[in-house]
Amino acid sequence: MHATVRSVIEVASERHEDFCILDTEASPEHLSRGTAQYADAMLLVVEPYFKSLETGRRMAGLAKDLGLERVALIANKMRGESDLEAVREFAEKHGLEVGGIIPYDDLMPAAERAGSSPLDFAPEGPAVTAIQQIARGLVDGSIAGNGAVKA
Length: 151
What we know:
By secondary structure, the chain is an alpha/beta fold. The protein is built from seven helices and three strands; from the N terminus they run ααβαβαβααα. Helix 3 links the parallel strand 1 and strand 2.
């Protein structure tokens, strides 16, 4: 599987005007198997819980060790200011960037139950809107090493 993913990324990376956003499994295995060697940036999706934040911190360290300069946390399922503050405090303490914020959105599990993609199910929903903003920030360079997106 990793060889196939590497091949897709290699082909996609040949044209600098193209962008390939890859959603990998929550595991450091793709880093150790060379999948990330063609990546320009890595966004680590975290939730406001210590185990998730600590995993994000460790993955950021591995990514930087492999030479990825653009690494940022994406704060996911934020239910309020206290969740966001927990992520921001952790990131600041460990020298990490918060590159985007995705609010908790009841439409996401509803899309799952309906067997539909969130983009098709609720294209104007708060989580989909935030994800689109993060994707634009990644493409235009305003996140992952060039300043956090304010959401």
